[in-house]
Amino acid sequence: MAGRYWVIFTDKSNSHFDPYEYFDARAIQRRIINKLPLFDSTDLPVNPDYIKAVKKITSNIRTESRWMNAVSVDASKETSEKLSALPFVASILPVQFSKSNIEAYYPLTLSPDQEKLVSGQLSSMQGNLFIKKELDGTGIRIAVFDAGYKKADQMPLLEHLFRDKKILKTWDFVRNKENVYAHNMHGTMVLACLAGRKDSIRTGLATGAEFLLARTEKWGEPFSEEENWLAAAEWADKNGANIISSSLGYTYHRYFKQDMNGQTSLVARAANMAAAKGILVVNAMGNDGKSSWGVVNTPADADSVLSVGGIDPVTGLHIGFSSFGPTSDFRTKPNVCAYGEVVSVGKKGLKTVYGTSFSTPLVAGFAACAWQSDPSLNNMELFKKIESSGSLFPYYDYAHGYGVPQAGYFISKNSSEKEVEETFTVHRKKAGIEIKISRAPTGKSEKNYLYYHLTGDNNTIIYYAVIKVTQAFSITIPESKLKDAKALEAFYRGYYLQMAIPE
């Protein structure tokens, strides 16, 4: 029976390349800024003699990967055994089955509810501060990976990107063609959440950024999805991308929950490799919060990926469908969150859409503006600063991460030094630990939540909760919940407290 396999080679002997010919000038610049070598072995091409030898056994080569030093092929079991016998083949790995999700799509006029929503999806991140400072992602190059960008070149909300020649390159990795403006609207909606703008309507922050559009998905052709993601990441690197925005993910059709450790999947390893090349990788957490899967997808599980969850625009809390953390090795995911219900484009105009697919480009657009504000940052420094800018930081949980990124953190350089008024007290009592809020809340209701969690060994969260505060009150965390706890962390209206729990 025929299948698809990765043919992993032992070495890259006799492989040569000139980085100044291969890479876009921006890719060279990114490496220099990040103090990365221009002649890294992972950038060397696959040995052409090895590829010729593979072609003598099977002509069905699909993808060549410099980063993984491998090719993927369609082959029978017998053919794969012949390939395995080649002296320069380290291993043959089957490409497993996968399937990914897409949200449905719906009106350039806005209903009253949409006017509020489209304003909130940016103002919740203090995007107005970036806009006021004329920070729009100019000078930042963003690669978008998706299932297609149908009619993107015809959308009024995206007209400025084509008029100003901000779409630099496109590639359909499914069909090996340049045209990506067909097949699916999902990528078009994502692009609008990155850079949509028309007259007074603005749906994304990175309206001045440059874009590389990659189609990596084809519904009903699941075998190639991760291969295409890897190939697109190498293409994005070559063409000078600063950011990858990926609203894609892979879960139960291919993996078990324990595989969500940032190391098992090909796509997680590809995402970490992209980060090692100086690219900020932003990926959706997934929409399985209410399903039996429930948890983070891959590559959002990778440690160097800025993983984005979704919040409800009305409550400001976790939106039900957004997948939860942590990873299977108990690392914090999501890293941050943004609106999971947004205004984007549809077939005939503006539309309300749902999913972490759209939270992700909102944050990727935010990241482009933040990077523009301080181009001296490398990708992982920016990663940490985006976390630190979160509305809950330094508090976190497995539903919200560090909260919604805030532009004020990047605009007001001394914002982290401001003193915060104590808004609650914590006391150890016989019955447990009392958290007391002595004054009734004031201000916007969406900020009036008490967040708290208990951590166990290795700072893993063993219990967390969010409580709506409408009046002065106190709660007691009973001793039964404190049995394995090492510390309590709590957050309310900007004030954060951590307390060790003695054994």
Question: Describe it for me?
Answer:
The protein is of the alpha/beta class. The protein has helices at 19-22, 25-33, 48-57, 77-84, 112-123, 127-132, 159-163, 186-195, 225-238, 266-276, 356-373, 379-388, 408-411; strands at 3-9, 61-65, 70-75, 89-94, 141-146, 167-172, 197-198, 201-202, 210-215, 243-246, 280-284, 305-311, 336-339, 341-345, 350-354, 425-429, 432-437, 449-455, 461-468, 473-478, 487-492, 495-500. The radius of gyration is 24 Å and the shape is globular. The chain has 3 domains: 3-94, 2-Layer Sandwich (Alpha-Beta Plaits), CATH 3.30.70; 112-411, 3-Layer(aba) Sandwich (Rossmann fold), CATH 3.40.50; 425-500, Immunoglobulin-like (Sandwich), CATH 2.60.40.
Question: Gist?
Answer:
By secondary structure, the chain is an alpha/beta fold. The chain folds into 3 domains: 3-94, Alpha-Beta Plaits; 112-411, 3-Layer(aba) Sandwich (Rossmann fold); 425-500, Immunoglobulin-like (Sandwich). Helix content is 24%, strand content 24%.
- CATH topology descriptor of the largest domain: Rossmann fold
Going by CATH, what is the homologous superfamily of the largest domain?
A: Peptidase S8/S53 domain
Mean pLDDT: 91
Q: Low-confidence stretches at least 5 residues in length (pLDDT < 50)? A: 97-107
Principal-axes geometry comes out as globular
CA-based gyration radius: 24 Å
Strand order of the largest sheet: 6-9-5-10-11-12-13
